From TrEMBL:
SUPFAM superfamilies: PLP-dependent transferases (SSF53383). It comes from Caballeronia insecticola. GO terms for molecular function: transaminase activity. Residues 1-15 have a biased composition (Basic residues). Keywords: Aminotransferase, Plasmid, Pyridoxal phosphate, Transferase. Residues 53-402 form the Aminotransferase class V domain. Residues 1-32 are annotated as: Disordered. It comes from the Bacteria. InterPro entries: Aminotrans_V_dom (IPR000192), PyrdxlP-dep_Trfase (IPR015424), PyrdxlP-dep_Trfase_major (IPR015421), PyrdxlP-dep_Trfase_small (IPR015422). This is Aminotransferase class V.
Length: 422
């Protein structure tokens, strides 16, 4: 690959002149995952041998260890028709791992189906009266919006704070929309459509000061950004597990802060009850629900996925979420640098700290989505262009290959007018 970008290719990150904004944002203290470890990680993801996979924000490819966990679950099912006590014990072990992931207690974690279920559980658990309001970000993921918009039929007002795609939400974004009747602020940590990383620390502080519940959709950040629910003052966090948590669709995790006893479940099952009847006969005279987050866990959960999640968390922890974040940020620096050289812009913010692993390239979806597919590059069409999302198994070579594919695309007649090629 010719060009400035090729010449500047760092194995260790270094500066080239003239300094681009990406370089200004670059930190020498953000090394990538060391080569040997990265090779081992890459071995775990066979998809990396088949295509250029840059779509983890859509869904994770499966790792070998996750497949093995699913396979052993199936073997147990075949051979023993299910050692349920063993399976249930593993659920509790996985709950402990998930809790550790968020700096929460196991009693604060429930397993759900996905992010939407967690957000709907939150929306129906918070005590809200007609005239109360909830503040969201305009254009945030619809699964967050609909959970709250559904409360309009109870007279709850839903307010949307506007936000440009290249900025992040801070306390200041929400302040003008908050009043004495504001009970909830709910937002994605990382946005799927522009990759913004919102300032949860500042927003959490504001919510604490004003006595507002902070509900966070962590679908796009979990596993890729360290999350400390206590430090961030999060009341409820909901996430699915099929992106940064590396397992197939159908399992979600829900954090409900201890002590929020006024949050009550809209559904009940035996598993939610403080005194589940040993004889399996429901007791209308004892409707006390559990005090922990399990009051929001209804019946059997997705056992194969829970087992897979345990293996996935082990894999993630073998690298460390902080190291994964540094890795994807360093690759993001390179990506921005390569895009700058080609004259291709991104939709979202460029500042480090405001972005992480999601970069939406301003390339028209109609032509470029097919072009990338034809070149074995897996990316997603998005509102503002083509979404590239990075994961722990991506490498400098992946970024170079992507830049090379874009460069070649820009040189063809069909795309020549879209961006300037130097
Ligand atoms: C921010 C965000 N929230 C939620 C979801 C998905 O919701 P669910 O887990 O309910 O399918 C996605 C994408 O899949 C997302 O990007």
């Amino acid at each position: 690959m010719p060009s400035r970008f090729r010449q500047s290719r760092p194995h260790r990150i270094h500066r080239i002149a003239p300094a681009s904004r990406a370089e200004e944002n670059r930190s020498e203290t953000s090394p990538m995952i060391p080569t040997e470890k990265l090779s081992a990680v890459r071995e775990q993801f066979p998809v990396t041998r088949r295509q250029l996979y840059l779509d983890s924000a859509h869904q994770t490819p499966l790792a070998m260890s996750v497949r093995d966990a699913l396979a052993s679950f199936l073997t147990e099912g075949f051979e023993t028709a299910g050692p349920k006590p063993v399976w249930l014990r593993r659920v509790e072990e996985t709950r402990v791992s998930v809790a550790r992931f968020f700096n929460a207690a196991p009693s604060e974690i429930a397993f759900t189906k996905n992010t939407s279920e967690g957000l709907n559980i939150a929306a129906n658990a918070v005590p809200l009266e007609a005239g109360d309001n909830v503040v969201l970000i305009e254009g945030d993921h619809p699964n967050n919006a609909y959970a709250w918009l559904n409360l309009k039929r109870n007279g709850v007002e839903v307010r949307f704070a506007p936000l440009p795609d290249d900025e992040i939400a801070t306390a200041t974004t929400f302040e003008p929309y908050i009043d004495a009747r504001t009970k909830v602020v709910s937002l994605s940590h990382v946005t799927f459509h522009a990759g913004q990383v919102h300032d949860l620390m500042g927003i959490g502080k504001l919510c604490k000061e004003r006595g507002i519940y902070l509900v966070v959709d962590a679908m796009q950040s979990v596993g890729v950004i360290p999350l400390d629910v206590k430090a961030l003052n999060i009341s409820v966090l909901a996430a699915g597990t099929h992106k940064g948590l590396l397992v197939p669709q159908g399992l979600g995790v829900l954090y409900i802060a201890d002590g929020l006893d006024e949050l009550q479940p809209a559904y009940l099952a035996m598993s939610s009850m403080a005194n589940p009847p040993a004889d399996y006969v429901a007791r209308p005279d004892d409707m006390a629900v559990r005090k922990d987050a399990l009051r929001f866990e209804f019946g059997n959960v997705n056992l194969p996925d829970v087992h897979a999640l345990s293996a996935a968390i082990d894999l993630i922890q073998s690298v460390g979420v902080a190291a994964i974040q540094k890795h994807v940020l360093a690759l993001g620096d390179l990506l921005l640098e390569g895009l700058d050289a080609l004259g291709v812009s991104v939709v979202g913010p460029r500042e480090r700290g405001w972005r992480n692993h999601i970069y939406v390239l301003q390339l028209p979806v109609e032509t470029w989505a097919d072009y990338f597919a034809r070149n074995d590059v897996r990316v997603s069409p998005e509102r503002g262009g083509i979404r590239v999302s990075l994961a722990m198994f991506n490498t400098v070579d992946d970024i170079e290959r992507l830049i090379g594919v874009i460069r070649a695309g820009l040189k063809t007649n069909a795309f020549a007018a879209i961006a300037h090629i130097d």
